[in-house]
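Dissemination and training. As part of the outreach component of the grant, students in the summer workshop were shown how a complex can be specified as a set of sequence lines and then modelled as a single object. The example used during the hands-on session is reproduced here so that future cohorts can follow it. Participants entered these lines:
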Amino acid sequence: MNPELRADIEAHMALYPDSRSAALPALEAAQRVHGWCSPEAIEEVAEVMGVTPAYLAAVATFYDMLETEPVGKHSIYVCTNISCSLRGADDLYAAVRDAAGDDPDFNVRSFECLGACDIAPMASVDGVFVGPLTPEDVPRLLDDTRAGRPVLPDKQLSTRLVADPNANSREFPAHAVEEGTQ
Amino acid sequence: VTEALLFKDIDEPGLATLDVFAKRGGYESLRRALATTPEDVLAQLEASGLRGRGGAGFAMGKKVSFLPKGTIDKYLVCNADESEPGTFKDRELMQKSPHMLIEGIVIASYAAGAERSFIYIRGEYVHQADVLDAALAEATAAGYIGENILGSGHSLSLVVHRGAGAYICGEETGLLDSLEGKRGNPRLKPPFPANQGLYQGPTLINNVETLATVPAIIRLGGENYAKLGTETSKGTKLVSVSGHVQRPGNYEIELGTPSREIIYGLAGGPPEGREVKCWFPGGSSSPVLKQEDLDLPYDFDAMAKAGSMLGSGAIIVVDDSTPILDVALKVAKFYRHESCGKCTPCREGTNWTVKMLERIDAGTATPMDIEIMASVQEHIIGNCLCVLGDAMAMPIGSLIAKFRDEFEEHIEQARARNDLGVAHAAA
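and obtained this result:
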């Protein structure tokens, strides 16, 4: 197996009194290498951690961010929980799905509350939170992601001020909740 | 509005670095705390009246005092799995002021006698976890984390542990199982974590905001902190306001501030021409309140008296343009997705509730179904290992009770729409 992955897993194991605590970080590390928690990825983690593959498979299926099927390399999580839905998330999710089409590079999912209702509706693009988004933002979002550029730099949560009273305000449509997409 | 404690310098450029944080008085509270005894620190926490900011509102000082004394291995776990829909305050604190949290963790661990600590942060908070890791490296290099901190004899290790996407891991015992590398299934209580928690050892678990408040308590003194807020809800609170308001965001308020002032004064209220239809005062698992409740003071007791709860301090506003059935369906679907499946009332109850709401929308329900749905909610509450099922049953029950007419109307209208469809197809 990849020696860097082995070292990564072993480093995580050393952080805990019981090395089994490293299961999530180890599976995440293997997922980064393999693209998903494939049977090979799970076997490798099991070998390093000294647990059974079945144990790790049971863990992996519990968590939304551990992929147990092959997926596109760019993950786009669109929050469709209540606060985002009230501000148009269902239309946004539909727009992202339509625009991404069957491009195998994208893993587009509707996701539970991502904890960024102040920029609703929003999405997490390879872990970067962006919002508030409209369907018109979607082509640029996908282009930036494809090109490996910072995604929608002007809409990234990390640059937003807490105390600016208008930081997150914008127009939003009346009755934006649509029949569930979760 | 009182002087901000948690958000005082929150937008200061570079506050996430040790340099700027220290210039703003950072780690002074730690020095002061370590110059006293753990008992003194515990006494300050108890005097402050600080109640947990994660949802349950349990007195923090009391929680610390529940840990057994002695040299047994004890743990401190910071619950940073912020996942209650509508809640985003801990994200802001971790991202902008990570050292404030770390300082609070070290002080609390000193009071509790814990020498190992963990921040369990939800996996989706990638940026925030990176920020915490960087701050942890700085704090370790400066000697605030590690062996014999500032010569006090107290030692503490800290690990930032990233979750992988599961709402139930915000439940403290589900979190512990997840931190032990398992599926995040809640445990039967008792034993409570204070006696048997992480690795079966005594464990103090607190929310991010709770721990981040600790340095302010030491700075002001517990008694002075307790002058803020109301008789039973002391101090300031971060409130996340979202949904149909003009200025969604995090606001630090003194507990007891009128709810209207938060929703309208700070967050700007619903857009022009629209009214508040209902609001969740403490995340999507809190029973909804209506317009007539807007003048209630926003604190633990007033929300409980009104039949709801302050919860995580997440106010979600729904305006009058939104059908109540859509709100119910969104909420119910979330809890169905997140139920771990261990307890039958929660696993089946959340699924049944979604199906019945869908029937209402599809025009195949009768008014009797409202009774059945209401009774399903009652049979979930209190009958499971954890409160995830209750977290759906409480808001859904309140929506049915408070908007019954609208549910009945929805049933009738959907049925009528259906009949028309059938008639049209026959013609």
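The two ends of chain B are 66 Å apart (CA to CA). Students were then asked to discuss how this feature might be tested experimentally.
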